[in-house]
Amino acid sequence: MSRVQKGLVAGFAATAVVSVIEAVNMMVGHWAVAFPQLLAVILQNPDNLVLGWAAHIVAGMGLGAAFGVLCPRLPTDTPESKGILFAVGAFILMGLIVAPIGGAGMFFMRAGFGTLAWMIASHAIFGIVLGNVYGRLVQRDKHHHPIGAAPAH
After folding, report:
1. How confident is the model at residue 136 (pLDDT cuts 50, 70, 90)?
2. CA dihedral in degrees (112, 115, 116, 122; nearest 10)?
3. Residue (of 93, 50, 52, 64) closest to 3 by Cα position
4. HEC states along 46-57?
């Protein structure tokens, strides 16, 4: 499995975990603007949460693929810390670009501090899961393909 493929799998897994807490936020507490809601607004279809959820999954998998490419170059030691570092970078870009486009203001400040805190926490969770799953996939490949051995395709 290539690094991009591992990243796609890890991105999907991380998005699934974050989606569970986003769903709880939307159904039980709604203490912050959920990312799928923000994406639906950005896509100019604020009442279509299915579109927001689909965009959320696509974004998570895209981030996973990017992580697969960048992971070996990130300056930390563990896959989880690499995932957190990557997710912090994604959060900064989202706060500077995506949130203002969605009308939430720079770093979600129009949506309130709760949304900012929620986005930081959800990105940290995303990063930990992303790095952990990616690291496990890398280790699995190392165990199945000894150094110098060609993978069986």
Report:
1. very high
2. 170
3. 64
4. CCCHHHHHHHHH
